[in-house]
Amino acid sequence: MILGSVICAVLFLLFIRNEEKLTAERQQHVNELAKELQPVNGERKKWQDDDKAWKATLEKKTKGESCMLLGVDSMGRNLYDTVFTMMAQYGFKATFTLKDGQLPISPDVEEASREYIDTEQFREMLDAGWEYGISVSEREITGEDAGEDDWLTRLDEALGHLQEGRIGVPGVVFASASQYSADADAELIGRGFREVSILNKEKASVITGDEEDFIHINSCFLNQNNMDIEQTMDKAAANRQSMAVTINEVLRVSKDGDEDVSLTKFTSFFNKLKGMEEQGLFQIMTYSEYYDYRKQLEQNKIKLLADYKAFKQEMQQKMAELDQQEQEIVKRTIPEGFH
Hints:
The protein folds into 2 domains: 24-62 and 298-338; 67-281, Glycoside hydrolase/deacetylase (TIM Barrel, Alpha-Beta Barrel), CATH 3.20.20. The chain contains 8 helices and 10 strands. It has helices at residues 2-63, 77-90, 119-127, 147-164, 185-190, 229-238, 263-278, 287-333, and strands spanning 67-72, 95-99, 131-135, 172-176, 195-200, 215-221, 243-247, 249-251, 260-262, 283-285. β4, α5 (185-190) and β5 (195-200) form a beta-alpha-beta unit. α6 (229-238) packs parallel to α7.
């Protein structure tokens, strides 16, 4: 009985020692395997890191940065005397409209009789990087008049005035939400326009949707009664979205809160915009600059996606080779009995 117990104890001790030896040998093989696999794992991680970097680049360069488009739907004296002069202090430029095809007046017109900017001021603004678009005034439609057709007819009349003044067709037409209809796109393209800026006077909004050859831009109105533009700016910048803001008239004290904006609110808006520009949250652009930016972005996207596809094919091939190398190293390093 005692002998049997001793024999069992000896066998158990031998078993424990053998297991300890096997464990030590396994650990040795594991350590050797880890060492042998370091170059393979290092190269695999490099490819995975490169893939993450590619995805980050695609996200940034195909979506683009937040842009702010500034427009002035007027060519009255206030455009030059107040808006242009003040925006120059911020280093901003904008797109103004030759409303109803109104041409700049002669600089010889008496000061007291001037309603619009003159030709010298017009040239000065263009030389400063400003651009012009066109719009037609809204009017109350009564009876059976077709609002869309009437707008296009009056737009043609306005373009005719520009032609008479030897001023070329601009790239952008400004329209109110009630004037514009998607059915008019073909007509607008046929007249030489590349963009339509659709003004919403009720609330601030961002530019949405994929951009194509003819770009639709949702513009909000900087007037005295619109209280949510600055909050919308913060959200747009956070989500890397773009905005367009249209100004009509800037007055020392607002007279019609639906149509004009006070000097105080105008200054507050541009102080905030300047701060966001300096932080890299917005790029300030004219409409033609935005059009060129979007087209370049689309070209970059096509090239980047093609380059990324080639990278992924190379990565998949390389990862398969690394998997094969790993299997061979395991077979070579770990004896058959230790698998």
